[in-house]
Write a structure and sequence with these properties.
It is a single chain. This protein is α/β, with parallel strands linked by helices. The relative contact order is 0.13.
Length: about 350
């Protein structure tokens, strides 16, 4: 009996080819597009990506080409609760969140897997550039894709063992060029569709504007820019507009570059430094172990502190049940509370957590 797999089809080329590859491998493939956009359809459509209304039509055309069933499922409430509300809350607290990580865990996996299993699916699949493997210790882990340029493992670190055991990621075995070639050869209608870039629910990447529109009564107004010595340097437009390490767009005329080194939500202050901001360590919480079960003993791993970070070697160990401390072998720029730190052993994700605080040397 053929195994059944639900493919999350975003309307893009990667998920389209994932569906094609799995059908070629003999799976019974069902396409599902997750409806997650707000009622403001014009704004979502303008931004495109997985929140654009055109995603449904593009996914449906791909499904017709592949002769597989396609359904649209409403995930608006899950997306609002687990992604949008979290995004807003983190920014208001002076942290810089990664909503794609929350979306992967709680919407694209938790909710989609539950609904997929309700209709008899054995697996879910996506078009992520990553691979799922079971290690010698019996645990599942995501492994880097064969193309470092597109690798998406950083945003997948908090998937659970159960979720990974029911996940297929066929795209991780190929380069982007090969994926587009598959789409062209098989006449998939999204073969030349450009990749989405920004956070899907924030038009134009204006995070501050989005939050001000969403919760105007909770959005902080202007406050003081401070030097690290406590001197008032000017007025900022609200802490939600800034992040650690930011240099451009500050509106300060200092005669030399300055960098955001600290956000103080309690006093609505933004601290800037004359020096670029490098950190020697960090503490993270909200830990999710993946390729390993714990860090009770110190272990040397490669740590990535943001999606595009190449990684830095570190010594990591648990200090509490839900806290890991990290000492970097070389200082790391702009370690930002709210972002994820993800630990790697070679190509495999061992786990990760949310950066709670960072230490400067």
């Amino acid at each position: 009996m053929r195994k059944k797999v639900v493919v999350g089809m975003s309307g893009g080329v990667d998920s389209a080819v994932a569906a094609y590859l799995l059908k070629e491998q003999g799976y019974e493939v069902i396409g599902i597009t997750m409806q997650i956009w707000n009622e403001d359809a014009s704004r979502a459509e303008e931004n495109g990506g997985c929140c654009g209304l055109s995603a449904v039509e593009d996914a449906r055309r791909v499904a017709d080409t592949l002769s597989i069933p396609h359904y649209v499922m409403n995930f608006k409430q899950e997306f609002q609760d687990k992604v949008v509300n979290y995004f807003i809350s983190e920014y208001l607290s002076g942290r810089t969140p990664n909503p794609c990580i929350a979306c992967n865990r709680y919407v694209k996996w938790e909710s989609l897997l539950r609904r997929g299993m309700e209709i008899g699916a054995d697996y879910i699949a996506t078009g992520h550039y990553a691979r799922v493997e079971r290690l010698e210790n019996g645990r599942y882990a995501v492994r880097s894709s064969i193309t470092a340029k597109k690798d998406q493992t950083y945003a997948l670190y908090n998937l659970t063992q159960f979720q990974l055991s029911h996940t297929l990621m066929p795209v991780g075995e190929y380069t982007k060029e090969e994926i587009r070639n598959f789409a062209k050869i098989n006449k998939l209608p999204v073969a030349d569709k450009p990749d989405s870039q920004d956070i899907c629910f924030v038009p134009g990447g204006d995070y501050g504007g989005f939050i001000a529109d969403a919760v105007p009564d909770r959005t902080p107004g202007p406050g003081n820019f401070l030097s690290e010595e406590g001197k008032i340097l000017g007025v900022h437009k609200g802490i939600i507009h800034y992040t650690i390490g930011q240099r451009k767009g500050l509106g300060l005329s200092m005669g030399h570059p300055v960098f955001v080194s600290e956000l103080r939500p309690d006093t609505n202050e933004v601290v800037v430094s004359d020096r670029d901001v490098y950190f020697t360590g960090l503490t993270c919480n909200q830990i999710q172990f993946m390729g390993m079960e714990s860090m009770e003993k110190p272990v040397r791993l490669l740590a990535k502190v943001r999606y595009a970070h190449q990684g830095q070697w570190c010594r990591a160990y648990q200090t509490k049940e839900d806290e890991i401390h990290v000492d970097f072998e070389q200082p790391v720029r702009a370690v930002t509370p709210g972002q994820a730190v993800v630990f790697y052993d070679g190509e495999y994700v061992m786990g990760g957590g949310t950066i709670l605080r960072a230490e400067r040397g």
